[in-house]
Each structure stands twice: as C-alpha cells, then as structure tokens.
Specification:
alpha+beta, Tick-borne Encephalitis virus Glycoprotein, domain 1, four-stranded antiparallel β-sheet
C-alpha cells in the first residue's frame, strides 16, 4: 500500500529550514556581541590611560610648584643679601667722600633731579632742533646747492668734533658722579680754563712732603706706583681726613666739602719718581687760596 509522502517530506523540510534559520541568526548575533565587547574593552583601556596620564601630570605640576617655591625663596634671600650689600656700599661711599649718609642721599636726590631737568631740557632742545632741521630740509629740497661744498663742510665739522672729543673726555669719578671734562695734559687744561665752567688750580705733590694747602682743603701724597700708574693721597677737608687709595692716572678723584657740600674734583695727569702733578677743579664761586 502506497503512502502519500508529500506531507511528511514537507514537515521534515520545514523543520530543517527552521533549524538553518536559527543557526544563521545565532551566527549573526555572535559577531555583534564580540564587537560590543571589543568596544567596551577599548573604552576601558582609554579610561585607564587617561587616569594614569592625569595622575602623572598632577605629580609633575606638584613638583614644578615645589621647585618654583624653592626658587622664590632663593631669590628672596638673594634680594635681601643684595639690599644689605647696597646699604653697606652706600655707607662706605659716604665715608669715602667725607659726607654723612643723609647728606649723600640728599645729594643723590639733588643730582637725580638735576639730571631729570637736564634731560627734559635736552629733549625740548632736540625737538626744536628737529623742527629747524625739517624746515631747512624742506628749503634745501626746493633750492639747488653745491653738494660737493656741503659734503666738504660736513666732513670738516665732523673732523673738528672728533678732535675735540679726543682731547676732552667725560668719565665717571670714584664717587660715582659723572665728571666734567678732564684734561690729560697742560694743553687740554688750558682749553678747560678758557671754557670757564669751573675753577682749575694746578698742583705738584711730592712723597714725604708736608701737606699742600688749596683753599679749605689740603693734599698729601702718601704712596706712588709708577709701574701700575697708581697713587694714594690724603685729602683733609672740614676737619675730616679722607684717604684716596690706589687711584689711577687721569682718574677723577671726587669728594664733597663745605657747609652745603659741593663737589671738588682732582686729577693727576703726570707721574714721576716720588712725585705727581695735576689740578684741582672746584665749582664757580668757591674761593681758592693756593698753598703752593
């Protein structure tokens, strides 16, 4: 007896199809699950790395702050030490030039005020000069001149200025004050005398001789070293003895004297065996009686 196999075959075929469909769906879900797991692990690794970097950065920042604090403490100590040295230097300078600390401070303020006023005056003068130069430049632009002659005049002027600067120098004296022009020989001293800005008095000092009187000050040569062009002398002023030790040839030696202290300056511009020659420079209006 023959049986109809159609329904049986269809039943088995449908079951097989369902099993294949389930396997395919399970195969699809498995890679998706693995991908999500990989992403989660990667995020965890990044989070741990960021945490480690943050900790290391915080540690470096803390170390940097500690180092900065140490530098600040060191700088503070250096600043205090520098202030102490400046104070000691100021007191030593005051003693060297024969002034009290207050007189030196007052004098410094006076000099600063005078320099400020002089700077302002020079700036105004420079502005006026620039205006005049601009005006002249405009006129020159409209007029044809002999360029060769102008160049010759400028060259001659520059040459004269260079010669004057070579003859007369401005330097800072041993008291820290900008000196007037100094003379290194008799010819240059005559130029300064004719300018009439200060009084100039020549002197000759011999080692071992009695002090030489110039107005209200006396000078006495104590030591001379011709090989090094150095000398030491004593200056007596206002009942005070000021030692000027190891001074150099052509160096402005400065000191203050008088009830209202004014700057005296002496320059030794010639040395011989146990002898120096030079000049004393005083402000205008100071009476000088030569003891030479």
């Amino acid at each position: 007896m023959l049986m109809d196999a159609g329904p049986m075959w269809k039943g088995r075929g449908g079951q097989r199809g369902n099993e294949m469909s389930d396997e395919m769906e399970q195969g699809t879900r498995q890679p998706s699950h693995n991908l999500l797991l990989g992403v989660a692990l990667a995020g965890l690794i990044l989070a741990l790395g960021a945490l480690g970097w943050g900790y290391a950065n915080q540690k470096q920042t803390t170390a940097a702050l500690a180092a900065a604090e140490q530098r600040d403490d060191k700088l503070q100590g250096q600043l205090e030490e520098t202030n102490a040295r400046l104070k000691a230097a100021s007191e030593t300078l005051a003693q060297s030039v024969g002034m009290t600390q207050k007189q030196l401070e007052d004098r410094a303020q006076s000099i600063l005020a005078a320099q400020k006023a002089e700077t302002t005056r020079l700036e105004k003068q420079q502005q006026a000069t620039n205006s005049q130069v601009n005006a002249v430049a405009g006129e020159v632009g409209n007029v044809k001149t002999d360029v060769g002659g102008v160049k010759t005049d400028v060259a001659n002027t520059r040459s004269e200025l260079a010669n004057t600067q070579a003859q007369l120098q401005r330097v800072v004296g041993d008291a820290g004050v900008m000196s007037g022009e100094i003379a290194r020989n008799a010819s240059e001293l005559e130029i300064l005398k004719h300018k009439g800005d200060r009084n100039y008095y020549e002197f000759t000092l011999n080692k071992g001789s009695a002090p030489t009187l110039l107005a209200n000050v006396t000078l006495q040569l104590k030591k001379i070293d011709t090989k090094r062009s150095k000398f030491t002398l004593n200056v007596s002023a206002d009942d005070r003895l000021i030692e000027k030790k190891d001074k150099s040839l052509d160096e402005p030696v400065q000191f203050y004297t008088g009830k209202d202290p004014v700057l005296y300056e002496l320059v030794v511009n010639s040395m011989g065996k146990n002898q120096v020659k030079g000049y004393l420079s005083t402000p205008k209006g100071v009476k000088i009686n030569s003891g030479n």
